[in-house]
Amino acid sequence: MRHILVKVVREIYMKIIIVFLLMVFGCSRSSMAQLDRTAFPFSYLNTNVKSLSLGNATVSLNTFGNEEINPAVIGEEGILQISPSWYNYVDYMEWKHRGLKTNYRLGQSIFGFSFQRIAAGKQVETIHTSLSFPFIHKIGNYDLDLSASYSHVFKNGLTIGVGVNYLYSSEASATTVSAEMVKPDDSWSVDLGANYQFPEARFNDFALRPHLGVSLTDFGTPSDYIRSETEYPMPTTLRIGGGANIILNKKAYGRKVMEVSVLQNVSKILARIEIKSNENGLYADAMNPFKALIRSWGTYEYYDGYVRGKSDLSEQLWWHSGVELKLLEAIALRWGYQNAAKVEEPLSYRALGVGIDLYYLVFDYTHIKNDEDDNLLVGHHWQITGRIPLDGKRPDTILNVLFD
C-alpha cells in the first residue's frame, strides 16, 4: 500500500512539474514576434564592415568595432581607436546613417563610446516593395543611439563586457498620408557579453586558437515607438557561437605569413507582442522583456503582409558563417553568409570583403548581395578606422617592410 501511495504522489508531482514548465516556457498562440514589430529597429543593424563581411558571425571575436554584436571587446594599451560610419539605406525610402565609435584601453579595462543617428529621408522610386524592408518606421523622423561600454580582460583569456544604450526617436508622422504626428519617445537598453580565447595549441606546422562567445543585446524597456497607445518591444537578440584561428608557423619580414579564421554563430530575436483584451476589444502590447526571455522559445504567430502565419523555433533562428584569410598580418580576404529567420528572410545575404591594416589606418570593404537583391544592405560598404598612439610608442607596421 505504501509503494502504491508513493507512486501516486510521484506521478502527481511529475504532472505538476510538467504543467509548470509548460506554463513558464510555453508560448501561447496569442503572442507574436517579428523584427518589424520592434521599437528602434535600426539598433539591430550592425554597422561594423568587417563583421558584415563575415556574415555577422563575430560574437566570439573581441576586436574593436564589434560592440554591436558583443560588448566584450579589447583594445590596445595606450591606443585610442576611432571609427566613423556613414551609410545610406535605400528601399522604398532613403535612410541616412551617420555615426562614430571609439575605445581606449587602460590596463585590464576598456572604455568605449558610440554615437549613431538614423534619419528618414525622402520616398524614392525603386523596384523594391515595402515588404522587403522588415522594419516598422516613421516618416521624416530621426533616431539617436548613444552608447557607453565597459570591458574587462582577465588573464585566463576571458573578457566580459556591458553596454548601456540611450535611444531617442523624434516626432514624426506614422504614414505618408497621416496628418497625426507620433510623439517623441525614448528608451534605455543594455548589452551583455562574454568571450573566451582558449590557450593556443601548437603543432609542427601550425598553431590553433579556438574561441567562444555569447551576448545579449538591446535588452530594454518597451517603447511607444510608432503609436502612442501601443508599446513595442526592443529587438533583444541572443547570440552564441565560436570559431578558430589557424596560424601558420612561419614568418616573413618578422610577420606571420598566413592566418585563417573560421567562424560559426547562431542568433535569435527575443521579442514578443501579446494580444490582450479590454472593454474596447483586442489590442497588441509588448511582452515584459524578462518574461520574453523565457517565453520566446516556442511557436509564434506573425504577419506576412496581411496574412497571418506561424513560425516554429527552428524557423526563428539566424545562422551566421564567416571565413577570413589574413596575409602578413596586413591584408585580409573575407567571405560571409547570413541566413536570416523565416520571417526576416530579406535580411539574408552573402558577402565578400577585404581589409588592409596599416596599423595607424585600417581600411575595410565589403560587397553584400542576396538572391533577389531586395536587401536594404545590398551594395558596397567601406569603413576607415584610425589608431592614435597616446603613449608615445611607434610600433612597426607593414609600411616599414615596404619602405625601409
UniProtKB/TrEMBL annotation:
Q: Where is the Type IX secretion system protein PorV domain?
A: 108-259
Which InterPro entries would you find in this protein's record?
PorV
NCBIfam families in the record: PorV_fam (NF033709)
Name the UniProt record assigns to this protein: Type IX secretion system protein PorV domain-containing protein
Q: What is the lineage of its organism?
A: Bacteria, Pseudomonadati, Balneolota, Balneolia, Balneolales
